[in-house]
Amino acid sequence: MLPPPCDEFYPTLDALVDAANKHAKDQGYAIVKLRTKKRGDVVFKANLACARGAIRKSSGMGKRNSSTIKCDCPFIAHAVRRKDTPGWELTVKIGEHNHGPSSPEDLVVHRRAAMTKEVREEILKSAEAGRKPSEIHTSLRSAAEAQGKRLVVSHRDITNVKRVIRHDAIVAAAPSATPPNDHTSHDEFTEESSGSSNDPKNLQLRLLKQKIATQEAQLREKDALLREKDAQLHIVRLEAELACRKTNSGSQYPQYNPYG
Questions:
Q1: What is the DSSP letter of 106?
Q2: Cα(26)–Cα(175) distance, rounded to whole angstroms?
Q3: Which of 68, 158, 251, 257 could crosslink 133 through cysteines, CB 3.0-4.6 Å?
């Protein structure tokens, strides 16, 4: 699998990552941003890695074995925006992979890129018509094949989009849980909170769904922090491996374990 070209400049960091992933998609891998460095409020450097890079160490106490495609792939690159250059430049530090090529359908990066605004609108339109995810997927695949393209969106992606649409509809229909002020009577507040329904069970259900949505958002924030920590550990390990390669060129460099 060939690394992305490093002889071009890009106007933005996102444009560089998109171009690198367009190349990586044909080669059977994907590139993700690990972390960025700022000078003041301006980002000038970003560390990039293979989507099958560092395996996150589980912080749970259970015995559940969650599946993952990550395999500690050593690929690492840097995107830098220097003052004396016309744009962002890519530099590949370690261009090797420890796995074979993957299908674009198996890589979230490519599936997310394929979920364009037009595809979302088509899923929304089909979902409102009562079509099943399998039927929507077949329709999208036929449309892509008619244009000579390959559909990367999976059944799970379509199901997730439908779930988000359903969740947004529930949140939009739920009344505000803001307590009444000093000038609002209890009867007025009860009437405003209940909306068009006078059933207290419906009100409790809606408020419970709002609470669940808030807890899910908090869990996503915690997950993002864990991913950031894993990214930093991955960078440390890869830099140590690169240093060992330079020191012991021609010999098998030792494996560095960032978790001790």
A1: G
A2: 48
A3: 158
